[in-house]
Amino acid sequence: MSNKEVKAALKSARDAIRNKEYKEALKHCKAVLKQEKNNYNAWVFIGLAAAELEQPDQAKGAYKKAIELEPNQLLAWQGLANLYEKPNQIDVKGDLADVYQKLLELYESGDKQKWCDVCNKLVELYHQEKKYLEVAETWQKLIRMKQEEGAEKAELHQLWKKMIQLLKDSTRNQDNKTGQLLLTAFEHALNSADTVPGEDHQNLYRDFIQCLSKFPHEVARLEKACHDMMALYPTVSYPLEVLCLHFVHSGTLSEKALHCFSRLLEMDASSGPGIIGFGIKCLKEKKYKEAVKNLTEGLQKTDQCPAAWHYLAEAQMKIHEHRNAVLSCNQALEALGTPEGPNLRWKNLTLQLKAETLIKIADADAAEEAIKALEEIVDASNDPVVSALRGQACLNKGLMDQASKISQDLLLSHPDLAEAHALEGFIHYSQKNYEQAEKSFLNAIEKKAGTAEYHHYLGLTYWFMSDETKKDKGKALTQFLKAAKLDSYLGSAFCYLGNYYRDIAGDKSRARGCYKKAFELDETDEESGTAAVNLSVELGDMDTALSILNEVTGKARPGTAKWAWLHRGLYYLRTGQPSQAVADLQAALRADPKDSNCWESLGEAYLNRGSYSTALKSFRKASELNPGLVYSIYRAAALEQILGKYENAIATYQQILKKTENYVPALKG
User: Fold this and answer.
1) pTM of the shown model
2) What are the boundaries of each domain within the chain?
3) I need a labelling partner for 620 at 20 to 30 A (CA). Which of 231, 246, 303, 565 fits?
4) Is-contact 44 32, C-beta < 8 A?
5) Element containing residue 165 per DSSP (H, E)
6) What CATH number belongs to 195-304?
């Protein structure tokens, strides 16, 4: 076949392809290849025809052969790109990206429009594959090309905005280089905006700041962006809110942070981040109740702020709201998820705080949960304070051997650690080894004098050690006073101060004040509540006694607060108010249906009200529960007599006289 014939055959192949006669085209090409096996155009036409005949492998082979022959010719690369772009082509995205890269190289010095079209396709391909770094670098090349061509500012602005859009999901699996390119795109977009200030520009600034807040290492850039936006948009609170949450999360309360909190609250008194900031300020100033109030309110208005939940738990712990503090720790941990970087620090701090709080609850279930929390702390084995907490949790769970082992190890490895000596003290105290406990708590106080719990336990040690140490003003009393001064929310310290003033010093008025304070701090402390009421009665101050009882019964759920219902019922009984007495004594019995004395008092109340049949049932119930209650048996007999059941009455009187021959009321009856 002559050169002329080759050209004619290639023309026939081209015409056949144009007429969609692909098999015919293949025949012409094969004829050419028999003569010239390295004919570039013949291989390209085979690729084209085979692709149309749904023979992708043959098409790919033909294009690759053509490329091998002339790597810098466009046709084969274009054909290969068209082949790979077909929807039936699977697992070719990597190959297609390489083809696009080559096409960019070939178009660069020539057709700029086609270069831009291929560039767009390549970016779209990388975006589908979530290859964000390649997206960013390729799109930047496109922008550079447009800049070299002298594109208008408005077109460049749209291109930078498009780059932001393409990279907006990249912050989830952030690599530093992509992140920097995204932030650069924001800065270019902001600088190229037409209307400043304006709504679009403001929204773009907001997105930029939100993006910056996801980068822990871009603190300076975040602060600058917030201040720049505040200067441009002084009535918009968003940059201040981001800045406040940034300070909350940083865990430092600088003058700059305080200024930011107060400025935000001046602008918007209902701003969640501002209220949270104020709550943290209250916590640092030891205004714990105010801190709890503000942090709770701020968190209701702010999404996902784990640091604020941690601060709330800390404030709740300070006022001994231990169960609420555990719930707040759980909220913080849920918000943190599976953290890295600075969030990992918050997770460790929160787990430790949760464990401390659970240990204060001091039951076996809470101890088990505390041990689990401590196990989750990263690098916990290297922290002696965490080890001491684990020892306390083991002690609460009754694992004495494990607690003792941890204590001994800590005292050897960290002899100057207050928590190590305190743990030893708790173990001795639980075993009633009071003399050893005293030494341990004195050592702990020497290392860390400002811990109320150590003084309180030393006070308890003296209280139970002997009558001498209990009565010695310089021992138990001094330690309880120090504990109460260091922690004004420690109800137990005030309860024992009440015990001291009542039982040792004989000062009823001061004792009553201490019990009242203890009960105000912990409304579940029945011992303090009962003592405050009894002492108020003894001091002739029924108003105080009743106000305590009214407060407790007003809040009590059915079947609870028996002591308060019983005390108030007996008061109504003494003061001739039998109907109120009946209601309160019934409420007391709902809490404890087996209290024979309570049934006896209820019988007395019914009797005073004139409800004889019900009174009779109550006295019978009392004597069933406690056959030794002679008064109840006598009252039942007397009521049978009143109700005309004489035979029953006589039998009951005789029953009493068998046990107590000279029981005068029964003889008289």
Assistant:
1) 0.78
2) 195-304
3) 565
4) no
5) helix 153-167
6) 1.25.40.10
